[in-house]
């Protein structure tokens, strides 16, 4: 790629690259093993860690001091300006919220730097590198011990309270967005679609089954009020995944285990699932309820 022109990520810097002619260049761009200038540093890309609807995350090292980092790469080359501005807003939201929340909680991933290469239309978000996400651990281990599960859960509730206290709704909490760091510390990532609480969102968001039914099933154009109860379903879904090896269904009663498995013998755990995996958000528990529950405190 050479020395690409770097500029801060701002809406006015994105418009010149929002056309489909560059799409082939972006799709064919190989980053693994490449060294790129990103803002104030030079970074050598390693292997791909994961990808989603809005970008791909790579392991990397900062050349000058060999510091290990994770770099999220998002292509802002789109078919229309509206889509490009939506992606830009998502990036700016992730940067803003990650920086503010990581200052008040050590369970939110820290953002180190960010940059935008005008020529390629690529945005780069540089953050601290974890060991693996919770989903990868669960696939390897199949099921956690009760002690391990409760250790993860208590950290999840800590994150839930941080979001609640700061009036932020994540809208896409799932095992893939919970990264494990040394010492089994859990940190939340991917705040790109997060929104302020008590404001309205339009249409569906999130990830099927891990996001609340009212989040994923919202009709196009439907206005919904953001509250932390949307995330509470997701926290319950994560606990369900750690307990029964798969996410819950939207079929009532949602807290019941898969047909081939017996219900958990831990009555406190089952009570949490009973109060979080509730289709009606009015009937659903809130984060303070989770923080005070015996399953969390015992």
UniProtKB/TrEMBL annotation:
<dbReference type="GO" id="GO:0000407">
    <property type="term" value="C:phagophore assembly site"/>
</dbReference>
<dbReference type="InterPro" id="IPR008271">
    <property type="entry name" value="Ser/Thr_kinase_AS"/>
</dbReference>
<protein>
    <recommendedName>
        <fullName>Protein kinase domain-containing protein</fullName>
    </recommendedName>
</protein>
<dbReference type="InterPro" id="IPR011009">
    <property type="entry name" value="Kinase-like_dom_sf"/>
</dbReference>
<dbReference type="InterPro" id="IPR045269">
    <property type="entry name" value="Atg1-like"/>
</dbReference>
<keyword id="KW-0808">Transferase</keyword>
<dbReference type="InterPro" id="IPR017441">
    <property type="entry name" value="Protein_kinase_ATP_BS"/>
</dbReference>
<feature type="domain" description="Protein kinase">
    <location>
        <begin position="43"/>
        <end position="296"/>
    </location>
</feature>
<keyword id="KW-0723">Serine/threonine-protein kinase</keyword>
<feature type="binding site">
    <location>
        <position position="72"/>
    </location>
    <ligand>
        <name>ATP</name>
    </ligand>
</feature>
<keyword id="KW-0547">Nucleotide-binding</keyword>
<keyword id="KW-0418">Kinase</keyword>
<dbReference type="GO" id="GO:0010506">
    <property type="term" value="P:regulation of autophagy"/>
</dbReference>
<dbReference type="GO" id="GO:0005524">
    <property type="term" value="F:ATP binding"/>
</dbReference>
<comment type="similarity">
    <text>Belongs to the protein kinase superfamily.</text>
</comment>
<dbReference type="GO" id="GO:0005776">
    <property type="term" value="C:autophagosome"/>
</dbReference>
<dbReference type="GO" id="GO:0016020">
    <property type="term" value="C:membrane"/>
</dbReference>
<dbReference type="InterPro" id="IPR000719">
    <property type="entry name" value="Prot_kinase_dom"/>
</dbReference>
<dbReference type="GO" id="GO:0005829">
    <property type="term" value="C:cytosol"/>
</dbReference>
<keyword id="KW-0067">ATP-binding</keyword>
<dbReference type="Pfam" id="PF00069">
    <property type="entry name" value="Pkinase"/>
</dbReference>
<dbReference type="GO" id="GO:0000045">
    <property type="term" value="P:autophagosome assembly"/>
</dbReference>
<dbReference type="GO" id="GO:0004674">
    <property type="term" value="F:protein serine/threonine kinase activity"/>
</dbReference>
